[in-house]
């Protein structure tokens, strides 16, 4: 998990500089005064064991940490559920996957799969200004020292779990 948190911090996925960290109440209040929509979401970590079906000493059996945006818990400046346009394209369907498998089974044809490393975070956040709340164990000490009680920081990159992250990645890849 530490490796994943560090990787995202190194890629500046969110801006946790003490000069830019804010209290959510201040962000929400300013947005209401200006008639502006802002979103707040929470980040959390998950850890899974990849290759758990393999023998204990197999090098392909390992733990993988991932930090995600909690897309089912996003609010706006009024503490109401945030709304998303859902304008992204649909993920590949099972039929499309089967068609690709079938193509690869034809003599003389091959099918390959590729995965981009940390794909979503290559795309910058756009659309509604989005702020994130880090888990307490990930809040920088400087924020605690400053007396923050409900500290947030700006999300700069599309992150797994954000309802529009796939669309942002597709747009980035198309460009």
Overview of the molecule:
With 175 residues, the chain is an alpha+beta fold. The chain is built from five helices and six strands; from the N terminus they run αββαββαβαβα. Strands 1, 2, 3, 4, 5 and 6 form a six-stranded mixed beta sheet that branches. It is globular and about 65 Å long. The two termini are 32 Å apart.
Map the helices and strands.
Blueprint: H1 2-10, E1 14-15, E2 22-23, H2 24-34, E3 38-50, E4 62-76, H3 94-105, E5 129-133, H4 141-145, E6 151-155, H5 165-174
Parallel strand pairs: 3-5
Antiparallel strand pairs: 1-6, 2-6, 3-4, 5-6
Terminal Cα separation, in Å? Answer: 32 Å
How many whole angstroms does the radius of gyration measure?
20 Å
- Look at the helices and sheets and give the structural class: alpha+beta
Number of strands: 6
Count the helices. How many? 5
Overall mean pLDDT stands at 90
The share of residues in helices is 25-40%
Our estimate of the beta-strand percent is 15-25%
Low-confidence stretches: none
- The outline comes out as globular
Biggest β-sheet: count, sense, barrel? 6 strands, mixed
Order of helices and strands: HEEHEEHEHEH
């Amino acid at each position: 998990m530490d490796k994943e948190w560090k990787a995202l911090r190194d890629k500046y996925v969110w801006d946790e500089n003490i000069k830019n960290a804010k209290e959510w109440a201040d962000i929400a209040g300013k947005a209401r005064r200006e008639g502006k929509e802002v979103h707040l979401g929470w980040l959390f970590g998950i850890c899974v064991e990849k290759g758990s079906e393999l023998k204990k000493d197999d090098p392909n059996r390992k733990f993988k940490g991932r930090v995600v945006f909690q897309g089912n818990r996003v609010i706006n400046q009024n503490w109401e559920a945030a709304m998303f346009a859902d304008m992204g394209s649909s993920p590949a369907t099972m039929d499309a996957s089967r068609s690709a498998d079938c193509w690869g089974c034809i003599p003389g044809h091959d099918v390959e799969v590729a995965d981009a490393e940390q794909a979503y975070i290559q795309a910058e956040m756009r659309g509604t200004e989005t702020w994130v709340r880090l888990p307490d164990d990930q809040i920088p000490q400087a924020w605690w020292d400053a007396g923050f009680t409900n500290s947030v920081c700006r999300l700069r990159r599309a992150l797994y779990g954000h309802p529009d992250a796939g669309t942002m990645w597709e747009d980035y890849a198309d460009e």
